[in-house]
Design a protein that fits this description.
single chain; Alpha-Beta Plaits; binds iron/sulfur cluster; 28% helix; four-stranded mixed beta sheet; globular
């Protein structure tokens, strides 16, 4: 059965009231990567073997064992360079393309705090969620099962903050009720990224400059998902070429896949 629209699922009054989130303030980030370490520690994720690519950014992107990565941007200035440090991870979109396209019932689901959770046991490894995600988030482990940030659902459902927010020494990652986070960042004079886009993202950014300066894309729900939902989902459920269907959807919605140096990080293993 197709999943119900995530937009519908986010509209319940209780969920909106209970919705938790993160506010990321890149201006406060010192790139200590305490958040990366805290996430790995809490989720028992092993280290990744990496190579020096001439930048301090390491690893260079998300991996199946890295749910939360600090992206380094170097901006040339009149004298020297300016660094911007921007967290990459699942945005826990209110209107989540990954959930809408997923053909495996229960593999991706909405938690009562508004996060997008996953169940590896139910994931069939078709990778449609990766094609549907506007933020290039889902990764796959050595068994081709989805791997991504859970918004620490096992912590926040027990009244704790997320591990990354707890591990951040500067307040660059703040956890709380989504509405409170929005109120505080707005009062502090920041422009918000993610407040209303995609039916409101669970992870938002408090910015002083335009989102493009931070390599943040325009949040877009791919309208083709709804169209292809009816065609591709039955094929994948029947097991008739799930990977081919994913590739077809990727081609139609995003275009031909370009091989990038960090594409290896999207696979399981090293
Ligand atoms: S960021 Fe991507 S993986 Fe995360 S909820 Fe949004 S669409 Fe899904
Ligand atoms: S919310 Fe939890 S799972 Fe997500 S990046 Fe932070 S520590 Fe990792
Ligand atoms: S722990 Fe906080 S300051 Fe350190 S890298 Fe992460 S977001 Fe930046």
């Amino acid at each position: 059965m197709p999943n119900a629209s995530t937009k519908d699922k986010m509209s319940g009054t209780d969920l909106v009231k209970q919705r938790k989130g993160l506010m990321i303030t890149p201006d406060l980030c010192i790139a200590c990567r305490g958040c990366q370490t805290a996430c790995k520690q809490w989720n028992k994720l092993p280290g990744d073997k990496t190579t020096n690519t001439g930048t301090h950014e390491n690893p260079p992107n998300l991996t199946p064992n890295l749910y939360n990565q600090i992206h380094f941007i170097e901006k040339p200035m009149d004298v020297g360079i300016e660094w911007l440090f921007v967290r990459r991870a699942c945005m826990h979109c209110g209107e989540a393309g990954c959930m809408d396209i997923c053909p495996a019932p229960g593999a991706l689901f909405r938690t009562k705090e508004g996060a997008v959770g996953f169940d590896k046991e139910k994931c069939i490894g078709c990778k449609l969620c990766a094609a549907a995600c506007p933020f290039d988030v889902p990764r796959y482990d050595e068994n081709d099962k989805i791997s991504k940030c859970t918004l620490c659902s096992d912590r926040i459902s027990n009244g704790l903050s997320t591990a990354c927010a707890k591990g951040c020494p500067t307040g660059a990652i703040k956890f709380g009720n989504r509405d409170d986070l929005i109120g505080k960042a707005t009062t502090a004079g920041y422009n918000l990224y993610g407040e209303t886009a995609l039916a409101g993202m669970g992870v938002m950014f408090a910015l002083k400059e335009e989102p493009a300066e931070y390599d943040l894309p325009k949040p877009q729900y791919n309208a083709s998902i709804a169209l292809w939902d009816t065609l591709i989902r039955p094929l994948t459920v029947l097991g008739l070429g799930a990977v081919a269907a994913g590739a077809l959807l990727h081609y139609i919605t995003i275009g031909p896949k370009e091989v990038e140096p960090d594409d290896e990080s999207k696979k399981g293993g090293e």
